[in-house]
Amino acid sequence: MSDPSNAPLAKHLASTDKKTRDKAVKALVKFLSESSYDALSEAEMAKLWKGIFYCYWMSDKPLVQQALSSELAEIVLSINTTKAALAFLKGFWEAIVREWNGIDRLRMDKYYMLVRKYVRASFTLLLRTNWKAEYCEEYNKILTSRDGPIHPDNPKLPNSLTYHVIDLYLEEIQRSLQESSPCHPAPLHTLLDPFIILASKTSNNITYDRLQSSLFDPLIQALNAPTESEDVNPPPAKRLRTLAPDLTFLCQHACLDSADEPIDPMPPRELRKTLLRNIFERASHEDSRVSNRKKMYQIWRNAMEEEEGKKELDAN
């Protein structure tokens, strides 16, 4: 088959005729899954993703959109090498960031769905490598690059895209673990490091608040959940906290950092303490914004106060 980035295929991917688009997608999948395929050049990848983006743009019925979003995300997992798959993911994020502001409100929900499917496929890809450090770090570089979805200093980056990634991140890590066998523990510090850095550097207060409410607070709370042998009825004041998503499976199948060899899950409360220390240390960096540093220190203080309160309660 010819190079999938060539003009005819890109044109067919964005055709107004569904049958033509379907054939183009199948041809694309076939090519990218061939053992001889290697990553395209940046220019070729951009051209290819332009076609894929508008292929999805043309899908107009919910069931068609769901099927196509799954098919497009599955391409990541069919590519022969992890290196080439990561290059394909890089092309995806660059295209999404580039085209996001042009998506009208009637199409926005389906692109939210596509982003979710690609985030999940990304975690599944990394999980298949046993969360190998080299690949996790490369994926983080993709996310935090100037053309990625969580760069702290790119004024052209659409906030709504960043917020969506923040909102679904923990949930999709957990889902990838639940759907995997064997289930290798997710390296939470490695996976969340770009977001901890974003929290320390962002000048957008709403972005910081979203990070704390959708990522840090739910995870810290979940990692401190009572065990079966402990009192599961917290004091009334603590019941008033916003209910966090159920992250039990994630907390039971997580570790701190990625490694080149499989490792065992880390006890949730031990992992919680280490993550809190990492947040504190990142806040201490000289490039952290002063206002953000104070907020991140407060996360640590609140957790320590909660721990002390729990000890007093246990003593009584």
TrEMBL record:
GO CC entries: nucleus; preribosome, small subunit precursor
Listed InterPro entries: RRP1
Family matches, as PANTHER family: NNP-1 PROTEIN NOVEL NUCLEAR PROTEIN 1 NOP52 (PTHR13026), RIBOSOMAL RNA PROCESSING 1B (PTHR13026:SF0)
Locations listed in the record: Nucleus
Family label: Belongs to the RRP1 family.
BP-aspect Gene Ontology terms: rRNA processing
Protein name (database record): Nop52-domain-containing protein
Pfam family, one: Nop52
Keyword list, A-Z: Nucleus, rRNA processing
Transmembrane annotation, as ranges: none
